[in-house]
Amino acid sequence: MNKLELHDSDGKPKAVMLSERVHWVGSLDPDLRTFDIILKSANGTTYNAYVIRGSEGVAVVDTVKEGFADDFFSRLESVADYSEIKVIVLNHLEPDHTGALPELMKRAPQAQLYISQKAQSMLKALLKQDEMSYTPVLTGDRVSLGDRTLEFLHTPYLHWPDTQCTYLAEENILFSGDVFGCHYCDNRLFNDHVGDFRFSFEYYYAHIMRPFKDYVMRALDLIEPLPVTMIAPTHGPILRDRPDRYVRRYRQLSSPSLASEISCDQKTLLIFYISSYGNTRRMAEAVYAGAMQVPDVRVSLYDLEGGEVDPFVDLIEEADGLIFGTPTINGDAVKPIWDLLSSLTVINIKTKLGGVFGSYGWTGEGVPLVEDRLRGLKMRVPIPGLRVKLIPTDEEIQACHDFGLELAKELMGLRSQKVLNFADLA
């Protein structure tokens, strides 16, 4: 009984009513299994687009991926004539939302395109259009359809610099772009009718929104004061049943949890290492002991041989400093270290303190390679990496102790500007 009629009696795609004045005109892609290389989908996805009818014209909010344009145009034609379209809004310029735009503008040349201020430089590059008339907008800008009004909310980096949300004031509907979306295809469309999509919602947040938590919080500050009765994202179910739950969940997922565990004047320093013959382990223990000497630094030591990588990502996200210990094998750092570093693309670690140490047998490339990666991730690496050949001597263990001590001081702003030359130990 929850089945929606997505096609007319002749089998032609038709629009789905969200309200008397608002329709879904998107498309379904149930066979999609990989999105943007990094995202998996066990259920496919939807490309959601919407039509809003006002007393003085029609607005189209977002389009669909190019290969699904026929469904989009068929559904659009079932509720509006192209001559009625006054406004086209793109909340995000990624190809899965703009694939049908060039053809739409040919069919509705009188329509004015509205994009965010930051989308201007991206429009030509993505759509390869030499001339395309558009109006850039910011938070608080509005466009009237007579008895319906669209208000724009600037929500950058969710998940591209250009992203925005659009709010239909008279009906309290938020067209949220990728925010509150997920890759989950179900032809029943609405969250109170589709299957259990909680995993897809959380997975999408973790891989798309999590690296931009600060921007998520800023966006929520704009969205939470609005009366919202429906959230219409560009992917996944339309959230018409208690949409505030999903807003609250974003707030929970974006809020730091470590603050409840430590005092505001403390900082956390995590040391990760892996050791082939125990030499890097001995170094790690000395680095740990040195860092422990600095008051208000909460230091943790983790042997990567004894744990999976994924759980560490949550710890790293809220830590203030990260130190990595790796031996050099075949001229490189070892795989568990690279696995951990590659997993950090889903979080923001810019400006965190970083340091690297490790033992080696021949040439010791592992430490500088990891240092380069930390700098590439925009971390601060204030002290040169510490390398020890084979079994560390007592002097070298003391140098490891001092290495940890100096990094912990740096973390607390207590370190002098003198740079210790640990390279002499290489």
Descriptive keywords:
7-stranded mixed β-sheet, alpha/beta, 426 residues, Rossmann fold, elongated, 2 domains
Write up this protein.
The protein is α/β, with parallel strands linked by helices and 426 residues long. The protein has 2 domains: 16-254, 4-Layer Sandwich (Metallo-beta-lactamase, Chain A); 259-425, 3-Layer(aba) Sandwich (Rossmann fold). 29% of the residues lie in helices and 22% in strands. The protein has 12 helices and 21 strands. It has helices at residues 69-77, 95-98, 101-107, 120-127, 198-209, 213-223, 244-254, 279-291, 310-318, 335-342, 366-376, 394-412, and strands spanning 16-19, 22-24, 27-29, 34-35, 39-40, 45-47, 50-54, 57-61, 85-89, 112-116, 134-137, 142-144, 149-154, 164-168, 173-177, 230-233, 267-273, 297-303, 321-325, 353-360, 386-389. The strands form 5 sheets. The chain has a 7-stranded mixed sheet with strand order 1-2-7-8-9-10-11, with no helix packed on it. Strands 12-13-14-15-16 form a 5-stranded mixed sheet. Helix 6 runs antiparallel to helix 7 (244-254) and helix 8 (279-291) crosses helix 12. The protein is elongated and about 80 Å long. The N and C termini lie far apart (72 Å).
